Amino acid sequence: MNTTANTRIDDAVPAIVDWSGADADVRTELLRRPTQAVAAQTRAAVAAVLDDVRTRGDAALRELTARFDRVELADFEVGVDEFAAAEAAVPDDLREAMRNAAARIEAFHAAGVPKSYEVQTADGVDCARIVRPIPRVGLYVPAGTAPLPSTALMLGVPAKLAGCREVVLCTPPRPDGSADPAVLVAARLTGVHRVFKLGGAQAIAAMAFGTASVPACDKLFGPGNSFVTEAKQQVAQSGTVAIDMPAGPSEVLVIADADADAAFIAADLLSQAEHGPDSQVLLLADDDALLERVRVELSTQLTVLPRADIARQAMARSRLLRVDTLDVAFDISNRYAPEHLILALRSPRDWLAKVEVAGSVFLGDWTPEALGDYCSGTNHVLPTGGAARAWSGVSVASFQNMVSVQSASARGIRAIGPDAVTMARAEGLDAHANAVALRIAKAAA
Ligand SMILES: NC(=O)c1ccc[n+]([C@@H]2O[C@H](COP(=O)([O-])OP(=O)(O)OC[C@H]3O[C@@H](n4cnc5c(N)ncnc54)[C@H](O)[C@@H]3O)[C@@H](O)[C@H]2O)c1
Ligand SMILES: N[C@H](CO)Cc1c[nH]c[nH+]1
Ligand SMILES: [Zn+2]
């Protein structure tokens, strides 16, 4: 332990680094996520797992589950009896909280369901976009460090709103071979059709390629550790299946001013640090005294946190940064593109226009990030690792295909056909030109 003034500061708590005047590119470089070496190791391990499941199916799943989850399973699918046992095991207050959360998630997501639309683009030419559910989707619910039934709600509710025909869910088995009961109850609450006790890259491989017991899905969803996230990216590159986004180890970036509540900020930082040793939590503030108060609070709160060991490891990749102005803090945040952004500022809504990219934003002292994790109604499956620059959190649209439709009458082909013929000839594609010209001639007769 170090000593500052009268307070003992936990060794894991980062020192305050002064970034006043630091070059913007240098700052961005310093906030990089996992090193290339770690990523390369993970890539190779995941590629081997995917290959094994693709070639050997269920036999590979059994071996990989024994190796990584330390449990021998003959059958991965959750049956009627296990669902019934889960319903009996989950306490009423948790069931009630999950029902309430599901209702708010549904209310928020239902308001954003993309609608079909039709436009007449020329006389006799109608164009439409119709919305269709993706037929078979695969959801991943993490359960390595801790089972996350809230994730089953975040994925199951929009899948149900979209109307997907078959919703499959994988979650890692517990040491006794069962699935977490709360995950099963949450899955049932949202109408998930089939649940398999599979975790990690092998679960992703099973849902991407299909095996004798697990159906191949059209699109995969959900967060997970670096193995799960890498597996999703590799199966997406193989072109057999789509994915929602890279949703890896949790991150939060807090921008705070001098009057922010240090205890609240420390609690929010620790709430994401406890997700895993590879979480990253960042605080940017323009006030030395506030930063010091947060260090003290982090030390104090760590002493009573049950998952302090995990949070301490995450602290090693985390930073407390002094910036010149709040404008600089927003510039850094926009370059970093955090999964979660907390604005612990006075009049936080006035600052919202400065946010260019972030997965989800939390305004003011009374909006802890944990509310969004569970029950405000927004989705907690969010892009990480800088992916928020171009990817968005899960929504009903993530579970839908948009199909475009066009219809031309004889009047329509006369009206717009000549443009097509001219453009086709310019591209040297005479068969294209002919397909249109034939119809123009017949429509004119
Ligand atoms: N971005 C988001 O939206 C979001 C949401 C919730 C959680 N998360 C993140 O999800 C992650 C959950 O991770 P988790 O570990 O708790 O659960 P997990 O279910 O993602 O991973 C557990 C699985 O990883 C596999 N595994 C473990 N060690 C392995 C190894 N050495 N080699 C190969 N496979 C191995 C095992 O099969 C195990 O079943 C956390 O990092 C959390 O921060 C992100
Ligand atoms: N904070 C996580 C997303 O990074 C979501 C979660 C689930 N349970 C608790 N938190
Ligand atoms: Zn969380």
Assembly status: single chain
The tally of structural domains comes to 3
Mean pLDDT: 95
Which ligands appear in the coordinates?
Answer: nicotinamide-adenine-dinucleotide, L-histidinol, zinc ion
Structural class label:
alpha/beta
The side-by-side strand order for the widest beta sheet comes to 3-13-12-11-14-15
Distance between the termini: 92 Å
CATH topology of the largest domain: Rossmann fold
Strand runs, count? 16
Number of alpha- plus pi-helical segments = 17
Q: Which overall shape is indicated by the principal axes computed on the Cα atoms?
A: globular
Specify the CATH architecture of the largest domain. 3-Layer(aba) Sandwich
Which radius of gyration do the C-alpha atoms yield?
Answer: 26 Å
Helix content: 40-55%
- The CATH class of the largest domain, by name, is Alpha Beta
Organism: Luteimonas terrae
Pfam family, one: Histidinol_dh
Catalytic activity: L-histidinol + 2 NAD(+) + H2O = L-histidine + 2 NADH + 3 H(+)
Pathway: Amino-acid biosynthesis; L-histidine biosynthesis; L-histidine from 5-phospho-alpha-D-ribose 1-diphosphate: step 9/9
Structure description:
The protein is an alpha/beta fold and 445 residues long. The protein folds into three domains: 2-30 and 249-380, 3-Layer(aba) Sandwich (Rossmann fold), CATH 3.40.50.1980; 38-244 and 396-401, Nitrogenase molybdenum iron protein domain (Rossmann fold), CATH 3.40.50; 409-444, Single alpha-helices involved in coiled-coils or other helix-helix interfaces (Up-down Bundle). The chain is 46% helix and 18% strand. It has 17 helices and 16 strands. The protein has helices at 24-30, 36-56, 58-68, 80-89, 92-110, 149-162, 181-189, 200-209, 226-237, 262-273, 288-304, 308-315, 326-336, 348-351, 369-374, 410-426, 430-444; strands at residues 2-4, 7-9, 16-18, 117-122, 125-133, 136-140, 166-171, 194-197, 219-221, 242-243, 251-256, 280-285, 319-322, 340-344, 360-363, 400-408. Strands 3-13-12-11-14-15 form a six-stranded parallel sheet, with helices on both faces. The protein has a five-stranded parallel sheet with strand order 8-7-6-9-10, sandwiched between helices. A hairpin with a 2-residue loop joins strand 4 (117-122) and strand 5 (125-133). Helix 4 crosses helix 7 (181-189). The protein starts with a strand and ends with a helix. The model has no long low-confidence stretch (mean pLDDT 95). Residues 148, 150-151, 250, 272, 275, 339, 373, 380 line the site of L-histidinol. Its EC number is 1.1.1.23. It comes from Luteimonas terrae. This is Histidinol dehydrogenase. Its cofactor is Zn(2+). Substrate binds at residues 250, 272, 275, 340, 373, 427, 432.
